[in-house]
Design goal:
Blueprint: H1 3-8, H2 28-44, H3 47-52, E1 56-58, E2 61-65, E3 86-88, E4 109-111, E5 132-134, E6 155-157, E7 178-180, E8 201-203, E9 224-226, E10 247-249, E11 279-281, H4 291-295, H5 299-306
Parallel strand pairs: 2-3, 3-4, 4-5, 5-6, 6-7, 7-8, 8-9, 9-10, 10-11
Antiparallel strand pairs: 1-2
Length: 309
């Protein structure tokens, strides 16, 4: 029925499988009879049981990986494994997730990145225990409103899709701490994002942002904000209220200046160059005098210049 069955149904004979008799050498008829008995036992197993054999316990979770199997559709038997907590369907050729997904009500982590998905089923909202959803590198245009019912969601990656905005229902994701919306078609930060009070990581690089709303100040827990490769002309003063920021990446935008209050972001510590470095990433912008010249002395020089006497 699908590629997984081919892998599961292979039987490997070993010397221990050879028929044994009392004091006489086994003949070919004995061997054939035993092989037939073993084959019959395997065939009597249901497809569900054969898939279940590939499920493992990992860090205390019931886990099944069907990654990189070339799957274009999911086996019907999969939806009967209600005990599954982690399911990896990444790097296949799936264009649809069926509504039967709701049967896996114990899922904690769902990984579907690297497929051809055009949408997520509304039934995903029934996965009330879901904490992590990886759906990047698909062809998603939008996200179902029902995803907002996954109130335990902590990590959501929707990067590298064709998303323009998010439904307001995602305002209910109050436990979400990491949100990746990079490489989409977003022109304005979706309104629901400002209600995600637990966010510590927000990735919006490579979109079509022209501004950041003043409401950005409501994300009081934010430590990492990445908005590089957009079309930002200015940064709002309210951004400087996020004093917990440790990494602010505004590289490759159209900024000519910075808010005077940026000196309040003391946890940025330095001008950063490497993408993974904490600090302020800003040098790849058309900054004008005197900001451009002051920055040559580093971030502390900028802070000293902007800070009131």
């Amino acid at each position: 029925m699908f590629l997984l069955r081919q892998n599961i149904s292979k039987q490997h004979a070993s010397s221990d499988d050879a028929p044994r008799t009392n004091g006489r050498k086994p003949n070919s008829d004995d061997s054939r009879k035993q092989i037939r008995r073993k084959t019959s036992c395997v065939e009597n197993l249901s497809s569900v049981d054969r898939i279940r054999k590939h499920a493992t316990r990992h860090l205390g979770y019931s886990t099944l990986s069907l990654a990189m199997r070339g799957l274009e559709e999911m086996p019907d038997e999969l939806w009967e494994l209600q005990e599954l907590q982690k399911l990896n369907l990444s790097l296949n050729a799936l264009s649809v997730l069926p509504s039967n997904l709701e049967n896996l009500e114990n899922l904690v982590i769902l990984n579907v990145w690297g497929n051809e998905l055009l949408s997520l089923p509304p039934e995903i909202g029934r996965l009330r225990k879901l904490r992590v959803l990886f759906a990047h590198r698909n062809r998603l245009i939008d996200v179902p409103e029902e995803l907002g019912c996954c109130s335990n969601l902590e990590v959501l990656s929707l990067a590298n899709n064709q998303i323009v905005t998010l439904p307001n229902s995602l305002s209910e994701l109050r436990r979400l701490s990491k949100l990746n919306l990079s490489h989409n078609h977003i022109q304005h930060i979706p309104a629901c994002v400002y209600s995600m009070k637990s966010l510590i990581f927000l990735h919006l690089a490579n979109n079509r942002l022209e501004n950041l709303a003043d409401k950005i100040q409501e994300l009081v827990q934010l430590k990492i904000l990445i908005v590089e490769q957009n079309s930002l002309h200015a940064l709002p003063r309210t951004l400087c209220c996020l004093t917990g920021l440790e990494l602010l990446n505004v590289d490759f935008n159209r900024l000519q200046s910075v808010p005077d209050e940026i000196y309040k972001l003391q946890r940025l510590e330095k001008l950063a160059c490497h993408p993974l470095d904490k600090g302020l990433h800003i040098i790849h912008n058309p900054l004008v005098k005197p900001i451009k010249e002051v920055l040559q002395g580093g971030l502390k020089a900028l802070y000293n210049y902007l800070k009131p006497a």
